[in-house]
């Protein structure tokens, strides 16, 4: 890229018009060392958004764990398999979500310390999902019927051995 090809003002305008091209040009400017031409303000914002996105992904997986663990603990008897054989998919879903979180931690270890702080935020989201999920099982609950605060510790959500509990039932 030639230095005068795009001005900082044009690059800033491009951010709103063609994000993909904006990102491509900024990456090229970075690689070529043309720091004075970068759209620094929007670049900084996008980098911050990337970090928030990783944390939101972790929270989303934590919500899955909460929902399925809560259903396992309180509504397994309503499944076709009943208490003894119901809820298998919930156990596997918890394991899958835990593995997704572990993989995100491998890529971004700082999330390990941030995720436990998001427990109550995740529970608020999980509560809404629980209401929807148990309605499919024929149970009509209201938000006030669920615990106001997360009934699980972070450690329990990440380490409780549901597969062992499942084996003990069989």
Structure description:
- The chain is mainly alpha-helical.
- The chain is 70% helix and 0% strand.
- The chain starts with 7 loop residues before the first helix and ends with a helix.
- The protein folds into 2 domains: 1-38; 49-169.
As residue ranges, the low-confidence spans are: none
Oligomer: single chain
Alpha carbon gyration radius: 23 Å
Helix content: over 70%
Helix vs. strand class: mainly alpha
Q: What characteristic shape results from the CA principal axes?
A: elongated
Quote the beta fraction. Answer: under 5%
Beta strand count: 0
Number of domains: 2
CA distance, first residue to last residue: 65 Å
What kind of sheet is the major sheet?
A: none
- List the secondary-structure elements in sequence, H or E: HHHHHHHHH
How large is the count of helical segments?
A: 9
- Overall average pLDDT: 91
């Amino acid at each position: 890229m030639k230095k005068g090809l795009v001005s900082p003002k044009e690059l800033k305008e491009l951010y709103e018009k063609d994000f993909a091209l904006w990102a491509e040009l900024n990456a090229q400017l970075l690689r070529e060392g043309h720091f004075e031409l970068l759209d620094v303000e929007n670049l900084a914002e996008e980098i911050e958004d990337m970090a928030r996105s990783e944390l939101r992904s972790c929270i989303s997986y934590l919500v899955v764990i909460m929902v399925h663990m809560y259903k396992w603990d309180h509504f397994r008897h309503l499944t076709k398999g009943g208490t003894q054989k119901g809820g298998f998919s919930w156990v596997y879903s918890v394991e899958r979500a835990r593995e997704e979180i572990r993989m995100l931690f491998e890529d971004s270890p700082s999330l390990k310390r941030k995720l436990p702080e998001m427990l109550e935020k995740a529970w608020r989201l999980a509560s809404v999902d629980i209401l929807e999920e148990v309605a499919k099982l024929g149970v009509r609950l209201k938000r006030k019927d669920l615990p106001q605060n997360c009934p699980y510790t972070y450690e329990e959500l990440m380490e409780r051995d549901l597969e062992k509990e499942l084996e003990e039932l069989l």
